[in-house]
Amino acid sequence: MRSSDAIRIVFQREIRTRLASSAFRIGIAITLLVVLAGATAIRVFSSEDETKLGLLGDNPPAAVESLRQSIELSGGTLEITEYDSRDDAVAALEAGDIDGVVVDGSELLVEQSSPDLLSQVSPAWQTANLVDGLATTGLDDAQVASALGHAAPLTMTELDVDPDRDARQGIAAVSVIVLFVTVQMTGAFIMMSVLEEKSSKVVELLLSSISARDLLIGKLLGSGLAGLVQMAVIIGALLVGIQIVGSDVIPDFSGWMFVAAVGCYLLGYLLFGSIMAAGAALVSRQEDAQAAMTPVTILSMLAYFASIFAATAPDETASRIVTSIPFVVPFALPGRIAVGNLTWWEGMIGVGGAIVAAGLLLSLAARIYTRSVLHTDRRIGWREAWSLGR
Description:
This protein has helices at 3-20, 22-45, 61-73, 86-94, 115-136, 141-149, 165-199, 202-206, 212-245, 255-281, 286-292, 294-312, 317-322, 329-339, 344-372, 382-387; strands at residues 50-56, 77-83, 100-103, 107-109. By secondary structure, the chain is mainly alpha-helical. A four-stranded mixed β-sheet has the order 2-1-3-4. Helix 12 runs parallel beside helix 14 (329-339).
């Protein structure tokens, strides 16, 4: 059988097996349910940022108005409830009807410590008490206003205005997670496929008709395409979830973001999937797979954490350095593109290094796979598998 025909047959078999498997379908369904349920929960529980405050005793109206303006400027609302007795206020607080109670302008009563509520409420009452204090000294309204003007807070002027900066960094972090999860799940599937064929002796029948190298290439191509389908479902679910939440802060991206995501997925899959397939060929039992995969697991987790750092702190020098590491590039590069601080030469260095590393790893994986996949009697070490057949 010609090599191209053998690869095509294995490719088609892997696609059918992967897409028809219950594990794949259940995983897709769970992903959709989790994303949509999370988006719905955010919509229900975070539809309005409302502060519910109780008042008891003597509280200056100016403080309430100042607090209301401050909360509305931040996009929230303030609901005020007045109480005649401390017992009534405590009962409402314990029932969860209100977030806190201001007592006589000097005490904030809460059920449990709430620094955020205190920092929100306290400045309004401090300002109101300051105005009353200045007025009691004999100053008229104009003099009080003048005195308060000298205590005005600093105003912030942003030189590099980017209203989408937070959204871009959020998308960068999400892209790291989606790519990492997809690559790991696809790599785990091909690892289990190799292990099942080896433990059931099916691989011996397959290798009687095709070469081990063609079998490996067909498996990588078939599982890789199935992984693309999975990634498309995840991204689609996220976009639907964004529509459910009603977010309008997603910045516009060109087609390069999509191209980068697909390209980086393929790079990451070739880097980690090929070595996972080779690692599975070293063992004959599922119990031994974890030990064989320990180096790959450590490497992938280091790449993940480095990519998260690059996404959350893109302007740091360390982020630019880790983006050039081949094993980090597939996860970190789309995030850097989303943030918008990736230079063309950084991208060329990162992608070029990752392509070279992927080629070397594919060659290494093919050698290890072809020399160890038929050894079903025991677990083989990486060094031993490399030296077999010399």
